[in-house]
Q: What sequence folds into this?
């Protein structure tokens, strides 16, 4: 009990101005979040610097020659041969030669249009054999495969290496 | 009295801001990176593929997660961009294959016998784990500028090992242009 002579009948202490004295509020515990932000920034920086985005990959299906070194038989009735021939300095481009009808296709689009016609005539199961020649770039080999698959042939492969 | 208290604080120069939204944003970004990042796999080395505009492929695949295939990487001799880990592409320069890589094992371009042995062994290993109806594939991942002559030994080794099915990897992007009638 304090020595303040001004007390209420209930014993509550009265401040000189006449207002009751309030109890001090309970202490607040507020954690320091600055280290948390520091650690988060470090983690973020690590992920930003180490992340590399990959190309999305897909598969173009095909088949490999059954055995190496065997002689190729003469063209069957419904086989389609595609020869990929390099052109230009450092084989920068290529043309596609379809043996049937001796067609020469300068672009992937014209190759696709011609293969579509053959597919309608010979059916989906007719074998398509691709023969890259010279130092043609892999890009054009893959293009020939891709267009044959787009033309809905099911049996596409390479000619056996000799 | 209240106004006096406020005025006193402004006079003292106290400025504070709420950092909770900042912490929220940082958490979201970290969660994004944690969920989208994957550890590097030696089976799929960085290289640049052909991206056919009208492609015949189905959904994109993560090759290293598929169990029914053996992945062969044809590593090119072109320099690699140290920042991205991908080959530097100069479309006017054709590339030469340097090695064939299957996982961490590397083979020379003329090492056909060693390649044949590995193909045979891996094929036998993988075929044992396949379910009925599943087929074994050889997947060829090759930079688009490498010459075909450098890739040909792969086909010889595969033929010697009796592998019939193959997939060629290419970039699988959304079709940019649709040709008429296709």
A:
């Amino acid at each position: 009990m304090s020595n303040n002579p001004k007390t209420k009948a209930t014993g509550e202490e009265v401040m000189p101005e006449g207002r009751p004295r309030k109890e001090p509020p309970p202490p607040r515990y507020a954690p320091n979040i600055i280290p948390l932000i520091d650690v988060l920034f470090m983690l973020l920086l690590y992920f930003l610097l180490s992340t590399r985005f990959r190309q999305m990959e897909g598969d173009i299906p095909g088949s490999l020659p059954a055995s190496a070194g065997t002689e190729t038989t003469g063209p069957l009735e419904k086989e389609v041969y595609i020869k990929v021939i390099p052109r230009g300095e450092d084989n920068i481009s290529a043309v596609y030669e379809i043996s049937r009808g001796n067609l020469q296709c300068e672009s992937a689009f014209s190759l696709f249009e011609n293969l579509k016609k053959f597919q309608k005539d010979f059916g989906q199961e007719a074998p398509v054999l691709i023969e890259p020649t010279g130092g043609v770039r892999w890009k054009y080999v893959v293009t020939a495969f891709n267009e044959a698959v787009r033309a809905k042939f099911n049996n596409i492969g390479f000619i056996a290496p000799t | 009295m209240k106004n006096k208290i406020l005025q006193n604080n402004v006079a003292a120069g106290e400025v504070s801001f709420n950092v909770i939204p900042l912490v929220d944003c940082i958490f979201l970004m970290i969660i994004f990176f944690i969920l989208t990042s994957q550890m590097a796999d030696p089976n799929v080395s960085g290289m640049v593929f052909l991206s056919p505009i009208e492609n015949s492929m189905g959904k994109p695949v993560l090759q290293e997660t598929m169990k029914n295939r053996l992945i062969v990487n044809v590593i090119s001799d072109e320099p690699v961009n140290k920042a991205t880990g991908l080959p530097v592409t100069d479309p006017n320069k054709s590339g030469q294959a340097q090695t064939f890589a299957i996982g961490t094992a590397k083979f020379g371009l003329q090492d056909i016998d060693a390649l044949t042995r590995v193909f045979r062994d891996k094929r036998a290993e993988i075929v044992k784990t396949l379910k009925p109806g599943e087929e074994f594939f050889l997947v060829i991942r090759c930079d688009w500028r490498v010459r075909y002559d450098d890739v040909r030994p792969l086909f010889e080794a595969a033929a010697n090992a009796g592998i019939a099915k193959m997939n060629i990897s290419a970039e699988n992007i959304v079709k940019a242009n649709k040709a008429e009638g296709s």
Notes: The beta strands of chain B are 69-76, 97-102, 105-107, 137-142, 165-171. The helical segments of chain B are 2-12, 20-36, 112-129, 148-160.
